[in-house]
Structures are given as structure tokens and as C-alpha cells.
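Researcher: We're teaching a course module on how sequence relates to structure. For the next exercise, students receive a sequence and then see the predicted structure as C-alpha cells, so they can try to spot secondary structure elements on their own. Here is the exercise chain.
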Amino acid sequence: MSVNLHDLSYELQKALRESDEYKNLVAYYDAVNKDESANQLFTNFRDIQVRLQQKQMSGQEIAQEEVQQAQKAAALVQQNPKIAKLMQAEQQLSMVIADLNKIIMKPLEELYGPMGN
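Model: And here is the predicted structure for the students to work with:
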């Protein structure tokens, strides 16, 4: 009997959407979006993150003033309780996904040995 991995992955996607971690993330994301100042802070922070990641991935040098701008934006978002809760929820969901990834990659690790060593 062949296992349909795509069907299982859609079941996992559904379970993820029904998880407390995902529901918390959605609730905190909605709260940030409904608060104009929090939304503006968060959007600015995300824009800076994306811009720096794109530069880094393309091998462009990141200027010191860009680093300072990113640090200031990070400090501002961490001071906002709604954004802080959203970022904590993101981290919790990310940890769940990392755990799932470890489980999924187990057969390859058993075959090839631990990855990254």
C-alpha cells in the first residue's frame, strides 16, 4: 500500500491551522492590524527586515546606518505590547514547525547521518 504524502501534508496543514499556536498567532496579528500605530511600527520593522535580508542574500554590503535603523525599529516594536505578543506567538509557532521538520527529516538523518555535521 502506497502512502500519499501530499494527502498527509494537507492533513498536517489542517492540524497546524487548528493548533493553539496558530490560533494565537492569528489573534495577535489581527490585534496588531487593528491598531494603527502598532500596524505602522510592525510594517516598518518587517520592511526593514526584508530589505536587509534581500541585500544579504544578493551579497550586497549592509551599511552601518542600516544596521542602526534596524536596531531602532526592533527596539520600538519590542516596546509595543501587541507586537511583542505577536512576535512571541511567531516564535512559538516557528518552534512547532522546527520540531515537525526534525520529525519529517528523521528518515534522511537515519540514512545519511545527522545533517550539518
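Model: If you want an answer key for the exercise: The two ends are 35 Å apart (CA to CA). Helices lie at 5-18, 20-34, 36-57, 64-79, 81-112.
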